[in-house]
Design a protein that fits this description.
By secondary structure, the chain is of the alpha+beta class. It has 2 helices and 8 strands, in the order αββαββββββ.
């Protein structure tokens, strides 16, 4: 019986330490940050683009309130740091102001890169929307 108790006492610290390190890894995942790059373009570089993109964990129902809006010529690219669980979203369409002629034949592209790897890309007429949830 004393042999069993000694064996349990000997291995108990290893069991406790292994459980402790599992919990530490969960915290590392939740606190993980990602380098997110948004890209947007139009096949006509003379068109002013209206781009809406998230910079933090945004509520999908309130994207227009939580996101950043910019007006630029094609192509567009921006890079920022986001956290695990954040919702990445980008939309691009023609601004249509300043007397620009908007054609139904325009093609828009939006892309999301996470740590240099393309995670989402959409090509579409009229408007392009890409989204990705940072969970891996």
């Amino acid at each position: 019986m004393t042999k069993l108790i000694k064996t349990l006492i000997l291995f108990l610290p290893f069991v406790i330490l292994s459980c402790s390190s599992d919990n530490d890894n969960d915290g590392d995942t939740i606190n993980k940050t990602y380098k997110v790059r948004y890209e947007a373009s139009c096949d006509n570089p003379n068109v002013t683009l209206c781009i809406l993109y998230t910079t933090k964990n945004a509520d999908i129902e309130h994207i227009s309130e939580d996101a950043k809006e910019v007006f630029v010529k094609s192509p567009f690219s921006t890079e920022l740091e986001m956290k695990y669980g954040d919702y990445c979203y980008i939309s691009v369409y023609a601004n249509g102001e300043d007397g620009e002629t908007i054609s139904d034949e325009l093609t828009f592209t939006s892309s999301i890169f996470v740590d240099g790897i393309k995670k989402a890309e959409t090509n579409n007429k009229t408007v392009s929307v890409s989204y990705y949830l940072l969970t891996d």
